[in-house]
Amino acid sequence: MKALAPGTVIFHRHRGYGVITTVNLLTGWISARFGSESRTLDLNLSTDEVQFADGEAILFRRAPPDRMPHARLMAVVRALHQAGYQKLYLYSWPKPSGLHWRWHLFTGPRDWMQRAWREGWYGSGADYNVNPVMGWGDSPGATTEELIHALAKFDPQGLAQALGRDEDHTAWFASVCDALLPGYMYSLDMQRPQGGPLLEMPSVPVVPVRAALPPYAGPDISWPPGWAGLWSKVHAMPTPRINLSGIPEQTD
User: Fold this and answer.
1) Span 11-25, pLDDT tens digits
2) Would residue 31 count as lying in a domain?
């Protein structure tokens, strides 16, 4: 994708060639000069059919972006399951503040509470808001296929650990994607009394990934395979990473 900035030469079907003077990518409006040094014209990138000088269209996305990456990650996991990487799991849960949701991809044994951590395979919606990438060399707005290729290039050894069959989880995940995508994501948030065991199994919480979407009103989502036994005892959270810097890590 070409850069769009003041000084970029553009073409408009009614005005001909011009030069951009100002750009506002939050609103999709630009100002440009067409043959006059003293007069500028305001153009909307969504509706005015502005092109680069070589004829390539300048497209501006009017739909609001996802405020969290989880739905995109769900599409990646579903595609990899279909390709035979069924030992790939997506765990998502809220931060203590409740304002954002974390995500964690892990491979190998299906151990939800003591899953292994690999650098670049986890993140937070709080980081995604200001830097909308997953963190494995992908670009903002990358397609599902592009995200998969970037992940395979970033950590081929880690992705190789996902090769194998896990048919019950794959079937559960496919049904969840059919019900939720593209506008909603699941949160594996296990609510329990303070210090007490988990006594019941409600439906999985569902969260919209865009602010303009209404609350989820579809069928209840069941918990992933392997979670049933976790509701009868206090579970242990994953072992924290070793911190060798001496500086306490921020948790929220």
Assistant:
1) 998 889 999 999 887
2) yes
Q: How many CB atoms lie within 10 A of CB 179?
A: 15
**48 with 62: CB under 8 angstroms?**
no
Contact, 107 vs 158, CB < 8 A? yes
Please indicate, yes or no, whether residues 10 and 122 belong to a single structural domain of this protein: no
DSSP for 59-119, please give it: ----SPPPSSSHHHHHHHHHHHHHTTB-SEEEEEEE-TTSSSEEEEEEESS--SSS----T
Confidence (pTM): 0.70
d(CA 68, CA 214): 16
The residue range of the domain holding 40 is 6-50
Question: In the structure encoding, which two tokens stand for residue 120, read together?
Answer: 């670049």
| pLDDT tens string 64-95 | 567 789 999 999 999 999 999 999 999 999 98
Q: Are 77 and 162 in contact (CB under 8 A)?
A: no
| 240 within some domain | no
**Do 152 and 35 share a structural domain?**
no
